[in-house]
Design a protein that fits this description.
The chain is an alpha/beta fold. The chain has helices at 15-20, 78-90, 129-135, 161-170, 189-204, 206-211, 216-236, 250-260, 262-266, 281-291, 302-312, and strands spanning 2-3, 42-43, 47-49, 61-63, 69-72, 97-99, 147-150, 155-158.
């Protein structure tokens, strides 16, 4: 592990969170009084690659192998949701199994409370922290998703979620389905990377900087940056169907998971309330276009999303009341984005039906 500038996934709590937890909180504290939110960016940087070579900084090497690894990804978490979408778009379901913790957690760890007996059926553990402690007995940081676990040893391999999805695209090609899209094409990588940097800093993490701000000054600054970026995206997407090029790429996956949670959570819970997503024509049409594309909307569980944020963030929502709204039926309305051209999957094809057992529960999706 080493410090590295970049995003970090949702955690049960970080070590800093633990310092600010109170005796009355079972889930940890997320807001530091008087300060701006500073996301913990220290994650396990191991990679799973074709040749399994050690990393440039001496990280252990792990070799691509079908059936060896299990992706742990809670439906509620936007960072984990990305890995689920990319796995599905590329057709890696048979090569990499999926474990899904429930939407809430306590101050220690995500738990497998949705599985029979509260135990992950492959790893045989009740808490994700068990896989972290198997690898690092004194692991000091947040127990985060997504995480990839080596099923043979039961030890966590990596929680470096920005790299996980890129490696799915570039290192796991042997196991891609026929017709898998090019989500990280070589000729577009510089532009994808540039767009991703701004989207992460000001949008993906920007909503958290608003929601977890510990002062009016910190909130005002985060709010201004968020809306400057959303205005930039609204303009960009008014003349192009996708963020980069004329097909779906990694950049679209990364933006989508924040947009899918915007009206349901971030607008109210995180005070990102200048406008709703549904009041931004280009972004709303773009989000619906992706939502209605196989591999995107069929991974979104709005019930779990709302349960996670409104129940876990006790210091923001101390009553734990989960709102009934908003009306989600609009996600299935026609978007009209086809008029901008573009080919969602390029020369590839859409993924097939969701694997049995991985479906969003009835009543938890849009239009329910």
């Amino acid at each position: 592990m080493k410090d590295k500038t970049g995003p970090a996934p949702d955690a049960a709590v970080t070590s800093a969170d633990r310092e600010h937890s109170t005796e009355n909180s079972t889930r940890g504290a997320y807001v530091t009084g008087g300060g701006a939110y500073d996301r913990d960016t220290n994650y396990i940087e191991d990679r799973i690659t074709r040749d399994g070579a050690p990393g440039a900084n001496g990280e252990p090497g792990w070799q691509v192998q079908a059936g060896r690894y299990r992706l742990i990804a809670a439906r509620a978490c936007p960072w984990a949701n990305r890995a689920v979408i990319v796995r599905r778009l590329l057709g890696l379901e048979e090569a990499i199994s999926l474990g899904q913790p429930g939407p809430t957690h306590d101050a220690r760890s995500w738990t497998f409370d949705l599985d029979p007996g509260g135990v992950d059926p492959v790893l045989g553990i009740e808490r994700l922290q068990d896989a972290y402690f198997k690898r690092f007995p004194d692991y000091p940081r947040g127990i985060t998703v997504p995480a990839i676990v080596d099923t043979a040893s039961g030890a966590v391999v990596t929680n470096n979620f920005p790299q996980i999805t890129l490696d799915f695209s570039t290192e796991w090609t042997e196991f891609h389905r026929d017709g898998a899209p090019q989500l990280y094409p070589g000729n577009l990588r510089p532009e994808i990377d540039a767009v991703n940097r701004r989207v992460f800093t000001d949008v993906n993490n920007g909503v958290y900087r608003c929601g977890f701000a510990g002062s009016q000054e910190a909130y005002d600054s985060a709010y201004a940056r968020l809306w400057a970026a959303l205005d930039w995206l609204e303009e960009r997407l008014s003349t192009r169907r996708f963020l980069v090029g004329d097909t779906i790429t990694e950049a679209d996956v990364r933006l989508f998971t924040t947009l899918a949670r915007f009206d349901a959570v971030y607008h109210g819970h995180f005070k990102c309330n200048r406008r709703k997503l549904s009041e931004m024509p280009a972004l709303w049409g773009y989000a619906r276009d992706l939502f209605q594309t196989p591999g995107f909307g069929d991974t979104i569980d709005f019930v779990q999303i709302k349960q996670h944020y409104y129940i876990v963030h006790e210091d923001i929502n101390p009553t734990g009341i989960v709102p009934q709204g908003p009306d989600l039926s609009g996600w299935l309305e026609a978007h009209g984005r086809e008029s901008l051209g573009g080919r969602p999957f390029g020369d590839g094809t859409p993924p097939g039906p969701v694997m049995p057992g991985e479906e969003v529960a009835p009543g938890h999706g849009a239009g329910s």
